[in-house]
Amino acid sequence: MSLLEIKNLSVEFGSEKNPFRAVEGLDLIVNQGEIVGIVGESGSGKSVTMMAMMGLLEGQGRIVADTLQFDGKNLLTISARERRKIVGKDIAMIFQDPMTSLNPSYTVGYQIMEVLKIHQGLRGAALKQRALELMEMVEIPAAASRLNAYPHQLSGGMSQRVVIAMAIACNPKLLIADEPTTALDVTIQAQIMELLVNLQKSQNMALIMITHDLAVVAEVAHKVAVMYAGQVAEMAKVPGIFRTPTHPYTEALLKSIPEHSKGAHRLSTLPGIVPGQYDRPSGCLLSPRCPYVQDKCKAQRPGLTAIDGGVVRCHYPITAKEA
Amino acid sequence: MTNANMQNAAVPAEDAAVNYPSPIKEFWQGFSYNKGAVAGLIFMIIVVLCAVLAPLVAPYSPIEQYRDHLLTPPAWLDGGSSAFLLGTDELGRDILSRLIYGARLSLFIGLCSVLLAMVPGVVLGLLAAFFPKVLGGVIMRVMDIMMALPSLLLAVAIMAILGPGLLNAMIAIATVSLPAYVRLTRASAMTELNRDYVTASRVSGAGLLRLMFNTVLPNCMAPLIVHATMSFSSAILEIAALGFLGLGVQPPTPEWGTMLASARDYIERAWWVVSLPGLTILLSVLAINLMGDGLRDALDPKLKRAA
Amino acid sequence: MLSFIFRRLGLLIPTFFGITLLTFGLIRMIPGDPVEVMVGERTLDPQMHADAMHRLGLDKPLYAQYVDYIGNLLHGNLGESLVTKTSVWTEFKTLFPATLELALAAMAFAVVFGLLAGVIAAIKRGSIFDHGVMGISLTGFSMPIFWWGLILIMFFSVKLGWTPVSGRLDLAFDITPRTGFMLIDTWLAEAADPSANAGAFKDALMHLILPAIVLGTIPLAVIARMTRSSMLEVLREDYVRTARAKGLSPARVIFVHTLRNALIPVLTVIGLQVGTLMGGAVLTETIFSWPGIGKWLIDAISRRDYPVVQNGILIVATLVIITNFIVDILYGVANPRIRHAK
Q1: CA distances from A171 to A134, A205, B136 (A)
Q2: At a CB cut-off of 8 Å and minimum separation 6, what does B299 contact?
Q3: A119 touching C, CB under 8 A?
Q4: Chain B residue with minimum CA distance to C289
Q5: Containing H/E element for A74?
Q6: Residue B73 has what DSSP assignment?
Q7: In C75-181, which ranges are continuous DSSP H helix?
């Protein structure tokens, strides 16, 4: 049985009359111990999907789904109280900016121990011991003295390690990392990625890596979902998706990675931006920006079609065209 | 930013006009979005009209005493008379007329004290921002000291020295509200001073006065206007408080606060003598504060998002 | 932390001397003869007048007079009242507990209800409760409190007869002042002699309620508005999302992770209300004939008792700056970023 199963998830914001669909008909399956990359431009609905799944949208967004199941529990029907027993314990999340993700008024030790107290009922020496252990697991030097540090006394990389320690505190089955390295220095980015991947292996967690950078997930992920404007454009196994992208959008993303276009004079870009609330095209959402656009694309929205090892949302997938 | 500029450059001229409504229209859109602010504005227009046209609007002279009609209740109560809509006070004066004439005084003193505080406050604030080392330090220390004194107490102390009266009340209230203007002007001028357009103006040879009043000041106006509105309402409250304490405008001049000074004695017999002047003060101050909120929304897009 | 306290203390002292300059100058700006002003006597023969000038040091140059004034202050000599001939400090000491009791009660009322209303309004943003709180607090903020006092007296004291009209305690009770706080004194007296002083505590409490509400109205409005906007701001912070992602209960997210940070600006605002409170005390004490500092100062002004006016204002201003100093320190305790700032 898969660890996380999402079928046909939609998330709407705004008023009933004038809703904005941030996520539309999203399907995602994550197995135990698997690394899944979710890739897309800003505003494509990557983070919203995960926040909706964890119940973090606080009544602002309306969530509809056929299935939203984690570890055999239906997240759509369980009570808020039941969900809070899972969230933070079995599903944990790491956010983009570590400097603002920690509460400035409490020591990092307090914030790590808080999770352990609430979910595992640890107290006293055992609590402190476990917190230290976690700080050491995320390779924070001089962990014992840093327990009493306030977030503003730590560097960005160090803060992100604290956030990771907090997230893995209860040995979660699923860890969601929402652009965990975007706000960090380039040199630190590699360290944090390495730490995350090592932890994933040693704890045998499933890891969902949200990023706008395909290169980040290329090396580590088992499977990649490419999102565009709230929909999955393509989902396929690694490395297949990188060798033979089937969706024009995936292809465009790959072309925009500097390493993939050595020798080219200019880095390839996809003109335009992700459509917002008011400028959604009636046909394929990518049609205004797609280099291969056809008449059918402008008229009709494509559904998901199965391809080798995944799915694609395109009337004219690239491999089919070439074949 | 660059993106937006390029897009706008591409569209035809008549579309650009659609994109950028005139500042006044834009301001009004922001302001009228706030229903409370519009209500406040309408109320204040009525009050101002009453004040300006007092001799035409008021049914009687505010100091005329009708000895046969002492403490007449308002017209809609038993014993009320349609001749005195809101009743009469302990000396038989028509309360409605006194309230209408009182509006003149409150608005006049309020306006004068706002100007008396704003003009020197802005100048001192600009000086403190342009010469932050010695002069700025001295000015700000003095303002800190003035801020340390509770404003009403300081006003009372000043009135104690100068003696009661209309002009002195204005001076006292202006003095009390001076530090806030200085601080506000200095703070916003300091931010503006670091902007490139100020450097550009300096480099192109603008003199000190030009820099202060033509370059920097216009860009500090938004918070100043909002603050002036708020300080106008607190000035009205302070005049009334001074009047109530017997330190402000002296009887028989009709002033809202002074009207309440003697009202305490009629608490048990004539509620209208007590309620109406205070209600007028409350509604006017509330209306101005609502307008201030609307002004802030309309002038400061950053604050609009915030709360 | 200690260096933080010392830095703040460094700002406090010049401010204090600034205020002495102000009160020193204040009395010299009164038009008329200085001896008349300070001694209160109108017709003195020239010899006596000169004696008085000399005795008061008014014949010295101005800077020497200021040095004398500071010297006196530092020796604890605050002059004496022209009317009662008692020292200003003694009068202050006897009257201050009444003002403090009133101010504390008003502040407790304002803080409890202001925080509660602000927090609930922020959580239920956009609800009827939220709009109600915002409307009422704007009204409270615009309230002429002397009128508000009169209206409350008219309704609760005159019409309903629930509360007394003025003073701190019914004249029927004879309570020995021990702490100066009527609530404590009556409570002690009732405990000591229940038969003679039955109901004294309740009577003191009933006397306190209306003035405390009146004095607390504006701080209440300010605190409620500030708490709401500060809560809304913090609720948008990333670390609140982190707290929810940790699976914490909504109560824990609000009270441990949001309120703690939202309180920091509210604390400053509460501190600033001390000044408002002292100004408001002047009006409130006048309406309710409350024998405290505010009424004392107003009476002194109307009696032209200038030594009381001068040094009474000095004491009150000093109190205000000391309170602001304490608030600053608390601010540092509440906010680690400030405490550690160099």
Answers
A1: 10, 8, 58
A2: B27, B30, B222, B223, B225, B226
A3: yes
A4: B264
A5: strand A73-74
A6: P
A7: 88-123, 128-141, 145-152
Q: Each residue of C256-283: pLDDT tens digit?
A: 999 988 988 888 888 778 778 888 898 9
How many residues can be counted in chain C? Answer: 342
Q: Which two tokens stand for residue C252?
A: 């824990």
CA–CA min distance A54, chain C (Å): 7
The verdict on a CB contact (< 8 Å) between C313 and B149 is yes
Beta strands in C238-303 (DSSP E): none
| B99 touching C (Cβ < 8 Å) | no
Contact between A11 and A65 under an 8 Å Cβ cutoff? The reply is: no
User: Does the N-terminal peptide bond of residue B120 adopt cis geometry, omega within 30 degrees of 0?
Assistant: no
| Closest to A196 (Cα-Cα) out of A92, A40, A108, A101 | A92
Tokens of C103: 């101010």
Measured CA to CA, the distance from residue B233 to residue B290 in angstroms comes to 10
Q: Which residues of C touch A119 (CB under 8 A)?
A: 247
Q: Which residue has the tokens 């601010």?
A: C331
Q: Given an 8 Å threshold on Cβ–Cβ distance, is C242 in contact with A101?
A: yes
What number of other Cβ atoms are within 10 A of residue B137's Cβ? 12
Q: What contacts A231, CB < 8 A, 6 or more positions away?
A: A23, A24, A25, A26, A45, A285, A313
- Choose among B159, B289, B307: nearest Cβ to C138: B289
Beta bridge partners of A39: A211, A226
Q: Which chains touch B (3 or more CB pairs under 8 A)?
A: C
Q: Are A156 and A184 in contact (CB under 8 A)?
A: yes
Chain A: closest CA distance from residue C275 (Å)? 28
Query: Considering only CB atoms, which chain C residues are within 8 Å of A97?
Result: 238
Interface with B, mutate which of C147, C234, C304 (most B CBs under 10 A): C147
- Chain B: give the shortest CA distance to residue C188, in Å: 34
Cβ of A88 under 8 Å from any chain C Cβ? Answer: yes
CB contact under 8 A, A89 and C247: yes
What's the complex ipTM? 0.84
Q: What share of chain A is helix, strand, coil (3-state, %, to 5)?
A: 35, 20, 40
List CB contacts of B134: < 8 A, sequence separation 6 or more: none
Enter the pTM of the model: 0.82
Alpha-carbon separation of residue A193 from A136, A164, A184, A211, A253 (angstroms): 17, 11, 11, 12, 21
pLDDT tens per residue, chain C (342 residues)?
677 788 778 778 888 888 888 888 877 777 767 677 666 666 667 787 777 777 777 777 888 888 888 888 888 888 888 788 888 999 999 999 999 999 999 999 999 999 999 999 999 888 899 999 999 999 999 999 999 999 998 889 888 888 888 888 877 777 777 788 888 888 888 888 888 777 888 888 889 999 999 999 999 999 999 999 999 999 988 899 999 999 898 899 999 999 988 988 888 888 778 778 888 898 999 889 999 999 998 888 888 788 888 888 888 888 888 888 888 787 777 776 666 654
Smallest CA–CA distance, residue C118 to chain A, in Å, is 20
Contacting B residues, span 220-259, partner chain C, CB-CB under 8 Å? 233, 237, 240-241, 244-247, 257
Provide the β-strand partners of residue A63: A11
Residue B56 CB partners (closer than 8 Å, separation 6+): none
b/e per residue A185-198 (b: at least 16 CB within 10 A): eeebbebbbebbbe
Residue B14 makes CB contacts below 8 A (sequence gap 6+) with none
Integer Cα distance of C25 and A219 in angstroms: 78
Going from the C-alpha of C320 to that of each of A60, B73, C295, C311, the distances in angstroms are: 44, 44, 17, 14
Contact across the interface for C151 and B145, Cβ inside 8 Å? no
Q: Is-contact A267 A261, C-beta < 8 A? A: yes
